[in-house]
Structures are given as structure tokens and as C-alpha cells.
Design brief:
The structure is a single chain. It contains 32 helices and 25 strands. Helix 18 runs antiparallel to helix 19 (372-395) and helix 26 packs antiparallel against helix 28. Helix content is 42%, strand content 18%. The strands form 6 sheets. The chain has a 6-stranded mixed beta sheet with strand order 6-14-9-5-8-7, sandwiched between helices. Strands 2-3-1-4 form a 4-stranded parallel beta sheet. A 4-stranded antiparallel beta sheet has the order 10-11-13-12. The termini are far apart. It is elongated, with a radius of gyration of 39 Å. By secondary structure, the protein is of the alpha/beta class.
């Protein structure tokens, strides 16, 4: 016969708590004693296991006598209390005497099943579970950043509603406060004062401290208090303190007042200092910096833009910051263009416009500084183009209507499919961005130059000429019929015209050789009012072009042309932004009566009205005679920044002859796969790094790629060494350079010979890449002075 183990557990019926184990027998009355006694005796003799739960104290005493008689090997007898259950659940060796059963129940400690650490005492266990490690690591709370990152008001309040938890928490705060008071650690005492008021206040003040680190000291004292400087000296990881606006009204108010003063003074030196002061944590900081950049008091450069992007990159979820970061590249200051020579040839005029005028113009647009002076500059190009237009239209290979004609043989000979995308209203401002987006999708530019749109720069003239590859635009409004008829004859290939993105997306397999896409989204967005759209035209345009690049890639996949799709990108015209405050000499009422079709920058007129035009019309407009250019109508095109209809500061218009309206990109892209070579990274100085020291880390960097690398950043990922990131705007092909950064070796470092891990991010041909490099390094203990008693 086997020996059975009988388990008898006793529970106080006055304590209301849930038992986790199941029992074979439960005794709730005295009368059950004899029956249970017989069952236990029978189980012992038959070798059965049996578990018994007793709620009656007298029965428990009687059964304990039975257990003593049989001994613990046969009958195990124990009392189940909240204390014993808690100890068993979390593996703590003992509880303080003051922790009673009822308090455990009221504090709901039996809900805890998180195991304790080896040797951990009860108080530290409670603090760690409910509040984190930061309250149990010595007399300081410098690792409070972890608490702030995970703090939730409701969870904290729930913890302090538990009597045992609240008692331990208050006792620990009192102990820590007294320890720091004795040591006269005023900064640490301030942390405890904030914590005692409320954990939310501590979190808010630490966030304020994070924000104000680089601002003037008196601003920090106003918000944080007299211990501002001492608090900054504490080893708190402020960068981990999350953005906390609640309870930080003083911070926002003081910053607003400070920023107002800076903006009023508009001192260039102070403005540059402000860029170094901001934390990058707040929208109000970004808005102030953006206002400064657009105010004209600061000369914006590439380095400044990179710094601002890096500072505020974590706030990209904010619509204000996101839009500003998208637009900020266009705020980089540009020099005023040189005066063009009226005797220049076509190439010189286009080069001047592309290299000098357009960058300057786009900068003025995005910084809100367009004046009549830029209209005077533009008119020099416009006068040249109008005066030479009769010759250029028929004889220049730079005319956009000739662009497809000039690659007609390439279209015929290309074995794979061709996608020709006419991006309506696509001027050169958007081309670099779109090029990067296409490169990210695996399409690389084979060639690109700027072409001259037909005038007036409108759909009815320039687009129809471009699509037909003829100086005279076709008259039909049925683009699909005209394009497919014209190009099937020219190429002897199957042609398909997409009038919308939905048409292109509906092409599930290849059904043609050459496709035309008329892309209108950019044009529609530029004509919209940015105030009503709720975003800038630049951001909206980039959004649409990003989608277009993805759709081109998706189209290539669907027609099985991932490796051989030839993509042609061009446009019918660009557009311009004309603020309503600029000079306009056009008498709207006079022209309105005579216009056959009225637009902002041009109007069409009848034959009769043409005959009636006064001689001084040439000072207001350019006259485009239909008979000279095979057009359906006569046109008057406004000079300079003049217009026939009122304009808004927040919309784009076209039809005129300014460079931004006339010059459009024409580019050819092909798919390709590019795998960059890794950078070679070598530490040149110091030869040996000593523990606990600060030093300059000198690196030799070699770009082994035959392509320009942009936005190159080196970030050290090391446990023992901290170093500032290294940023290089551009690294030329096959180039070796030397750079330096500030670094320090932590006191906790161990002497060793090993490797440092650098993460390297960079961009080549529009694609983002990431590599690692691990140069050799030796970490050593600093030299120690030998002490010899014989020298005394």
C-alpha cells in the first residue's frame, strides 16, 4: 500500500480573499468534522491523495491533533493567510511585522504575481513594482528619466490608494529627503519637493529643464527656480524626458515673451544664437525659428537647415512642423542674380534663368519676399523670349513641343514599354524632389535639361503642341483620340492614353507599347488657395509627386517592365506666384470688355478687337498674333507681374512669359539596381583612449563610390564611449577627408582592445542607405603615479 499525502489548509473565514487552489473537501460547519475525519482516515489507508480546506477554527484544532499523530510525511497541515499567500506568490523570504493580513487585502497585494529579485526585501519590491527602479537605487533619484518616460497619472494614483504601498512610498521619500538635507544637496532636495507635490509636477519641471538647457540662465530661473543651474549639473538623462505641456504654462509664457523680444529686435547675431538655444521639443520654438528664417534678418545656409531638421525631426507628427520642414530647404538664401546681357544667345539665357534667377525667385516665394524688383528681372527674360519667339518656335531644339519629336527614334527602337508622363504645371522647383522620389523607386535619370514652353503658357496651346509634337496645337478636345492617332502613325506602335491616374491604375497588364499619362493633380493643387487647403503648396506638391513616383513603380510591376520601362517626364508649362500687393498697370475693365476668354495672365481676343488695340498696348502686354504662330486665337499676355484678374498671395497662376512659367524639365529615366560600396573609416587620433577622459576623435573617411554621397552622418554606437554625431552635407566621389568630433570615455569603461561600431547613413542618387564600420581602438586605464616611501 502506498503512503498518501493529506493536505489540510486552514483559512480565517473573517478574511475575504480568493484562493487560487482547488480543494477536494471544504469544511464550513462543525457538524462536518466526523465525516471528514473518516474520509481522511480512509484515504490514508487506501493510498489516495486528498486536499482539505477548513474554515472553522475548532475543527482546525481537532484536525491538527490528527496531523500531529500521523506526522508531516502523511498529513501536511498549514494555515493559509494573506501573508503566506503573498510570500508564496512573489518568492519573498519575509514580511515586516507591521504588514497585517487585512492591510494586504486592502492593498490588493494578492493581485501581484511578479517574482521578486534574489535577496530583494519587501519594501524595495513594492517600490520597484509600483513605481520603478528609480526609487530603490541609493540616495539619489537621478535615473528619474525612466520614471518620466513611463509615468501615467491614473496608474500612479491607483498605487497610492493602496495603504501598504502609500506607507512605503512616503517612508522612502522621507528617508531620501533627509539624507539629501544632511548632505546639503539642494538640487536633489528640489527634485523631492516637486515629487512630494505631485509626480506630474516633477515630470513637468524636468521637461522644462530639458527645454531650457541652452537658453539664458535668467529664463531658466524664472521657470524652474533658483536651483536651475545646479539641477542642470545633475546626471539626469534629460533627453529621455517626454514632451510634457500639462503644468508647464509658465514655460510656454516665458518662452513666448522671450521670442517676442527676439523677433522685435531682429538682431542678426541674436537670431543666430536663438537657433543654438532652442531644444527642438516645442512647436512654438519651430514657429519662431521659421519666422526668423522668413524675416530676412538671417542668412539661411545648408548647415543651418540641416541643424534645424535634426533638432525638430522628432516632431514630424505635428502638422506645423512637418509642413515647415518640407519647405525649409527653399529658404536657403540665394544671391541676387546678375543682370543679363541682352545680346546673349539662347543657351546663356536659359543658363542664367536656371542657375541664378529661378533659385532666387523660389527663395523669395518661400520666404514671402516677392517684390516688383523680381518682376523687373523676369521681364528681361520675357522680353528676350518674346522678341526671339518667332525664330525659337520653329528652329530651337529647346522648345518643349519638339522634345518628343527629338526622341522619336528612341521611342521606336526601345524594346520595352514607354511611359510618357505630362506633369501639368511642373516647373523646375519640384524637379529635384521628384527625381529623388523616382530614384527611391529604382528609376535613374539618364538625361535632363530645361525646355521652353509655347506661349501663352496654357494648356490649350502648350500641352496640345507638346502631345502632338507640332508647333501648332491640335484643335480637338479629345486628347486620347488625337494622341493615339498621331503617335501610332509616327512610331508604328500601339499607343494608349491615360487621362487620369485611375486610368493608369486600371491597366492590369501590358496592352500597349507607348503610354501617355496626363497628370493633373499638381496643377489642381497649385491653383488652390493654400490657406483653404490647410497646407503649403510645396508640401502638397511633394505629396502628390511622391504618390506619382510610387504609381510609376507599381505600373512597371503590373506590365512586367521592372527592368526595361522607359520613363519620360516633362510638362506643358510652369507657374508663378504673384502677391496682390505688387504693381499692376493693366486696366481690368478695359480688357474685360474686349476679352474673348479671360485668365489671370493672358486673354484671347477677336480679330475685330485686335484691329482696335491702341499703340501703347505694348507697355502692358505682349501681343501673340495667331497668324504668325498657327494658333486658333490672338492672345494678349501680361508683362512683368501684371495680371488681368485679381491674384492671391496663396495661389499659383500661369499663362505669362516669366522663366518660372516658361522653363520646364524634360527628363528620361530608366530602371537600375544600385548597391553602394562601404565607406572606409579609420581612427587617426588618439592612438589610445584613456578611461574617464574627454578627447577629440579624429577620423579618416574614404568614399569609395564613384557617385556623390549626400547627407552623410556617422553615429557612434558604443557602450563605453560617447561622441557627437558627424554630419557631412556632401562627400565627393572617390574622396578621402579628415574630420573631428568631441568624445569622452566613460568611467565605467573597461580596459580593452576592440572595435568601435559606427552607424553610417547617407544618400546616393536619391536612395537612402545605411552601413556600419568598426575601426580598431584601444581603451586603457590612465597612467597612475607610483609612490615610493624611499623618496620621502
Amino acid at each position: 500500500m502506498s503512503i498518501a499525502l493529506i493536505s489540510i489548509s486552514v483559512v480565517d473565514p473573517n478574511l475575504d480573499f480568493q484562493l487560487t487552489a482547488d480543494f477536494d473537501i471544504k469544511i464550513n460547519t462543525k457538524s462536518e468534522y466526523l465525516n471528514v475525519y473518516d474520509q481522511i482516515a480512509s484515504a490514508i489507508h487506501t493510498g489516495e491523495n486528498l486536499t482539505v480546506l477548513v474554515y472553522i477554527k475548532s475543527v482546525a484544532r481537532w484536525l491538527k491533533i490528527m496531523a500531529n499523530r500521523y506526522g508531516p510525511d502523511i498529513i501536511e497541515f498549514c494555515e493559509i493567510t494573506p501573508r503566506s499567500m503573498f510570500l508564496d506568490q512573489v518568492y519573498i523570504s519575509e514580511l515586516p511585522d507591521w504588514v497585517k493580513d487585512q492591510e494586504i487585502l486592502e492593498s490588493e497585494l494578492l493581485d501581484l504575481f511578479i517574482p521578486s529579485k534574489q535577496g530583494e526585501i519587501f519594501e524595495n519590491y513594492i517600490l520597484r513594482v509600483f513605481f520603478g527602479d528609480w526609487l530603490v537605487q541609493g540616495e539619489k533619484i537621478h535615473n528619474v528619466a525612466n520614471f518620466c518616460s513611463n509615468y501615467e497619472l491614473d496608474q500612479w494614483g491607483d498605487a497610492l490608494r493602496r495603504p501598504v504601498v502609500a506607507r512605503i512610498y512616503k517612508k522612502r521619500l522621507s528617508e531620501l529627503r533627509e539624507a539629501n538635507r544632511k548632505n546639503s544637496d539642494k538640487a536633489d532636495l528640489q527634485l523631492f519637493k516637486w515629487l512630494e507635490i505631485s509626480p506630474s509636477i516633477l515630470k513637468a519641471k524636468l521637461f522644462a529643464l530639458r527645454v531650457l538647457q541652452k537658453y539664458p540662465k535668467d529664463l531658466g530661473i524664472r521657470v524652474v527656480g533658483e536651483q536651475f543651474t545646479a539641477l542642470l549639473a545633475l546626471p539626469i538623462e534629460l533627453n529621455k524626458i517626454p514632451v510634457t505641456l500639462t503644468d508647464n504654462e509658465d514655460l510656454i509664457f516665458e518662452l513666448s515673451a522671450y521670442f517676442r523680444e527676439v523677433l522685435i529686435n531682429k538682431n542678426a547675431g541674436n537670431n543666430l544664437v536663438l537657433i543654438d538655444e532652442v531644444s527642438g521639443c516645442l512647436e512654438i520654438e519651430f514657429s519662431t525659428i521659421y519666422d526668423l528664417l522668413t524675416s530676412g534678418s538671417v542668412e539661411v545656409n545648408d548647415e543651418m537647415v540641416h541643424k534645424i531638421k535634426k533638432l525638430f525631426g522628432d516632431q514630424a507628427d505635428s502638422p506645423i512642423v512637418s509642413q515647415g520642414l518640407d519647405d525649409i530647404d527653399l529658404l536657403i538664401s540665394r544671391d541676387t542674380p546678375s543682370l543679363p546681357d541682352e545680346n546673349w544667345n539662347e543657351e546663356n539665357w536659359i543658363r542664367w534663368a536656371a542657375d541664378e534667377y529661378l533659385p532666387y525667385r523660389y527663395w523669395l516665394e518661400n520666404s514671402g519676399r516677392i517684390t516688383d524688383n523680381v518682376g523687373d528681372l523676369a521681364s528681361k527674360f520675357s522680353d528676350w523670349y518674346f522678341n526671339k519667339y518667332g525664330h525659337l518656335l520653329f528652329h530651337s531644339d529647346r522648345m518643349v513641343w519638339k522634345s518628343l519629336l527629338l526622341i522619336q527614334d528612341q521611342l521606336k527602337q526601345h524594346a520595352g514599354p514607354v511611359l510618357i508622363v505630362i506633369v501639368d504645371n511642373f516647373n523646375s522647383k519640384f524637379y529635384p524632389f521628384f527625381k529623388r522620389k523616382l530614384q527611391q523607386q529604382g528609376f535613374y535619370e539618364r538625361n535632363m535639361d530645361l525646355r521652353l514652353a509655347s506661349i501663352p503658357t496654357c494648356t490649350e496651346v502648350s500641352k496640345r503642341s507638346l502631345l502632338s509634337a507640332h508647333h501648332a496645337p491640335f484643335k480637338s478636345t479629345n486628347y486620347a483620340t488625337e494622341v493615339e492617332k498621331i503617335w501610332s502613325k509616327r512610331t508604328n506602335k500601339k499607343i494608349k492614353y491615360f487621362g487620369s491616374m485611375d486610368d493608369m491604375r486600371a491597366e492590369k497588364e501590358r496592352t500597349a507599347d507607348i503610354y501617355f499619362l496626363n497628370y493633373l493633380a499638381l496643377d489642381i493643387s497649385l491653383h488652390g488657395n493654400s490657406n483653404q487647403l490647410g497646407t503649403s503648396h510645396v508640401q502638397l506638391g511633394r505629396t502628390f509627386l511622391t504618390i506619382l513616383a510610387r504609381d510609376i513603380k507599381s505600373f512597371a510591376n503590373r506590365v512586367q517592365a521592372q527592368d526595361d520601362l522607359l520613363v519620360v517626364i516633362t510638362s506643358d508649362h510652369g507657374s508663378t506666384n504673384i502677391p496682390k500687393g505688387t504693381i499692376n498697370v493693366i486696366q481690368k475693365a478695359y480688357y474685360k470688355e474686349r476679352a474673348k476668354d479671360e485668365h489671370h495672365r493672358y486673354i484671347s481676343i477677336t480679330e475685330d478687337e485686335l484691329e482696335k488695340l491702341p499703340d501703347n498696348i505694348q507697355f502692358d502686354c505682349y501681343l501673340i498674333n495667331k497668324d504668325n504662330y498657327d494658333l486658333a486665337n490672338h492672345y494678349l499676355v501680361a508683362r512683368k507681374l501684371y495680371r488681368f484678374l485679381p491674384t492671391s498671395d496663396h495661389t499659383y497662376i500661369h499663362g505669362g512669359i516669366t522663366p518660372e512659367e516658361v522653363l520646364v524639365p524634360f527628363a528620361i529615366f530608366r530602371p537600375a539596381t544600385f548597391v553602394p560600396k562601404k565607406f572606409e573609416l579609420r581612427i587617426t587620433k588618439p592612438r589610445k583612449i584613456f578611461i574617464g577622459t574627454k578627447f577629440e576623435l579624429d577620423l579618416e573617411i574614404t568614399n569609395k563610390n564613384n557617385q556623390l554621397c549626400e547627407n552623410v552622418e556617422f553615429q557612434l554606437n558604443a557602450q563605453d564611449i560617447e561622441a557627437e554625431a558627424i554630419h557631412i552635407n556632401q562627400l565627393n566621389p572617390l574622396t578621402r577627408i579628415n574630420v573631428s568630433t568631441s568624445a569622452r570615455c566613460l568611467m565605467s569603461a573597461r580596459p580593452q582592445s576592440g572595435k568601435l561600431n559606427f552607424k553610417i547613413t547617407f544618400r546616393i542618387q536619391g536612395q537612402e542607405f545605411e552601413h556600419t564600420s568598426e575601426p580598431q581602438v584601444e581603451i586603457s586605464e590612465p597612467a597612475k603615479t607610483k609612490f615610493d616611501l624611499d623618496n620621502l
